[in-house]
Specification:
2 helices, 0% strand
């Protein structure tokens, strides 16, 4: 049995999820895309995809800034 159901409703829901994330600048949509040159808050020109360079720019800027601590433990910690 196939677990992935392809339907017009599922297709629309997937597009709506990407549109909502872009509108509110969530995740990678918080950064402009260096591949297709769209501004932050806009969908990439590739349908239903976020370019890898955009995801990497988001990770580099947001995820490294969110974790300034070092995972190395000291003798007292």
């Amino acid at each position: 049995m196939q677990t992935l159901l392809l339907s017009p409703a599922g297709d629309a829901a997937h597009d709506a999820a990407h549109t909502t994330a872009a509108r509110f600048r969530h995740g990678a949509y918080a950064e402009p895309c260096p591949t297709c040159h769209v501004p932050a808050g806009a969908l990439c020109l590739a349908r239903r995809a976020v370019h890898a360079a955009r995801r990497e720019a988001y990770r580099r800027k947001h995820l490294t800034a969110a974790r300034p601590w070092s995972p190395v433990r000291t003798a007292h910690g």
